[in-house]
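Explain this protein:
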Amino acid sequence: MRLDVTLKNVVRNELFDETVAMNEEKVAKRLKRLKEELAHLSVHVERNPHKEEFYCGLNLFLPSKVVHIQEKHHTLEGCVTESFSRLLIQIDKYKHKIERHLQKRNDTKRNDLTIE
């Protein structure tokens, strides 16, 4: 999986890098059936200079879907963690939908074979 991280008004630190790396592993683990070059994760983090708020946007590009997540939080790590947790929920929904579709397709093939 390809990963792009962009920061605006944010200083990159070790804790941020560890948080992103840990969550990237979780995403890659859920998408292990896909080839690595088919999934692309884009992380955009920015800080509001007037308030102490962080915004995190995640875009996950998959072969048949693009998942967008926007999150706002008062700490940098909290913002990234919340965004990734919402992304994992969306990935699970996507996988369930595909598995259900494939299961229905296989069931109809089995029914066609038994009817003949």
Notes: Residues 2-115 form a domain with the Double Stranded RNA Binding Domain fold (CATH 3.30.160.100).
